Each structure stands twice: as structure tokens, then as C-alpha cells.
């Protein structure tokens, strides 16, 4: 075991602060990573504050990790010391259920090991995330990152990037499709960039008028304020696909009405409370309401390679780790442009 510096939430109502954790010794299939950057996902906040229930304190959040390989085990084949690598939302899975065999480790039938607030496959050892100087991960769950891209901007691809790429691919986003993205935050801005890169006609649906110019710069063709009733009426029956990233309570029914016949709304945001849906809003127009969870390891590598090829990274605001609680408050207010990323050098010093 090696003790490393980290930042943890020790209680739901306490700020995130300095903490020490043990990282396991590097096993034969393990990669040790010196973390350079870690993105701040809204899920970190939901978990640190126990908004979904089930937080195991102390929790060290962070699942948008980019760093350099600092040590490898004897049997590691795909990574070497000095390589630039990434780690996303999970660090292991059973490896033998139908979903794992289909490269869908995020839906592992025996329970995968999430990067934080979860247990390793021994079902005992608690996982700690990327708000720390180092992490040790089994090689299969370590992604290759191109040095061509700005590495701080790559970090958010490991969650916000794959979480939006995967449903765009699964629901076959293509040239000419009319795609709406709801909520311009970390996930939302990646959805806009990715959908427009795939040739879709993208509409940003936001409650924040000050984000209009940014939405266009990110690649949105249209911007609509959801707070204005007449806008919502005008857009009825307009979209093939809606990517919904909203993190808080809102009315799904209002957005279902915007789908064309056979259209699909994908829920990515996880509001803490259950929200009602009226059956006629799905029945009339044969509309689908679906959800999607991050993406598998193979698809995450495909997304990273796609982003390197198309020169896509996240728009970030870099912070030192001692500003993490302010970053949480600003994220909650929707004041993030469009992902906070922690410069992990600030934790070493
Ligand atoms: P974020 O950066 O805070 O963005 C959320 C955006 O939603 C805000 O910027 C805001 O956009 C909009 N919004 C917030 N509150 C709202 C409200 N009350 N009504 C309407 N719109 C509201 O969060 P994020 O990191 O993108 O994460 C978004 C959600 O996805 C979180 O719940 C997170 O836990 C979840 N998530 C899910 C997965 C998955 O695998 N499915 C993966 C990662 C994260 P506007 O100002 O433009 O309206
Ligand atoms: Zn996330």
C-alpha cells in the first residue's frame, strides 16, 4: 500500500477537503497512474452530498482522469511507463457476464466497480476516485490518450464525452438528423460538439439566455429558451432525438412533446427524485423515453480516438484543488463554462 494525498467529502453537509488514502501495490495486471487532471462532474456533487443515497463516507470523487503511467505490473501489455492515459467512470467488472462479453461493462450483470463510492470485484475494497495524486487500475480499464490534444480538455471526455457519444451512436445520430440537447453544462456542451460533428442539425434547449452565444460557438445551429412557453409550442413535433442532461427536477412531458413521430428522448441527467410521465405523451407519436449510462471500455477508446481525429476536447475552466467547493457551488448555479478541471499539480504542492 502507498499512502497518497487526496480530497474527500467526509459527510454530506461538509465541504470537500484534504484527506489521505491508500492505493494498492501494483499487481501484475495493474497500471499506476500519476494523475495530471481530473474533471468535476455533477455526479461528484450528487455523490459527495448523498443526493442519490448510498454514499460511503469518506468519498473521494472524480471519474474524469488523465495522467501519465508511472508504474506497470509484470503482465501489462498495452501500456508502458510514460504513456498518457485516461480512466473514466469504472475501474473493473466481472468480465464474464453477457454484457461484459459484449463490451458493455457499464451494464455488468454482476455489478461493475465504479471509480469511486463503489467496491472492487472482491466486493469489499472501497474505491476512491481521481481527486488524488495517483490511482492504480487494472490495465483493461485504462484508456489510451493522444498527446495531440490538450490534456486538461481531454479529462472530461472520460465521462461527459463518452456519456454523450454513446447514445448518439446507439440511436444512430447522422447527417441531417434534428437533435436537441437539453441543459448546457458539462454533458450538454459535449453533446452539442459531438452531435454537430456527426452532421446533425443541433438545437440547444436552455433556461439560461446568457449561454446563447456560447452554444453557437460550440456548434449548435439554433438556441431556444425553455422558460418561454411560446418557444416550446413552436418546437412541438420537431426532433428525432433529444439528449436530456438536466441534473435537477423538471417536467419530462414538456420535452416529449417536442419529439417527432418515432422520436426518442434519452435521459442522461439523474435528478434525485422520481419524475412522472403521462402515457399519452409517448403513445401519440410512438415516442420513446430511454436512458443511457456512460459507455463501455471499447466504445470509450473509440470516442477518444474519434475526438483526436476531429480535434474535439471539452471547454474547461482550470482550478486548483482548494477551489473545489466554489466550483461545486458554481456548477449548481449553472455557472460553468463548461467543465471545471482540477490541475492535480495543486494537490502535490
Ligand atoms: P452540469 O454541468 O451541472 O449541467 C447540467 C445543466 O442542466 C445545467 O448547466 C443547466 O443548463 C441545466 N439545469 C440544471 N438545473 C436545471 C433545472 N432545474 N431545470 C432545467 N435545467 C437545469 O451537470 P453535468 O455534469 O453535465 O451532469 C448532468 C447530469 O447528468 C447530472 O445529473 C449527472 O449526475 C448526470 N450524469 C449522468 C451520466 C450517465 O451515465 N447517464 C454520466 C455523467 C453524469 P442550462 O443553464 O443550459 O439550462
Ligand atoms: Zn461523470
From TrEMBL:
Q: Which GO terms describe its molecular function?
A: alcohol dehydrogenase (NADP+) activity; zinc ion binding
- What cofactor(s) does the depicted protein rely on? Zn(2+)
The protein's UniProt keywords, in alphabetical order, are: Metal-binding, Oxidoreductase, Zinc
Whether tRNA-binding counts among this entry's keywords is: no
Residues covered by the Enoyl reductase (ER) domain:
17-342
A Pfam family: ADH_N
Coiled-coil positions: none
What's this protein's family per the entry?
Answer: Belongs to the zinc-containing alcohol dehydrogenase family.
Name by which UniProt lists this protein: Hydroxyacid dehydrogenase
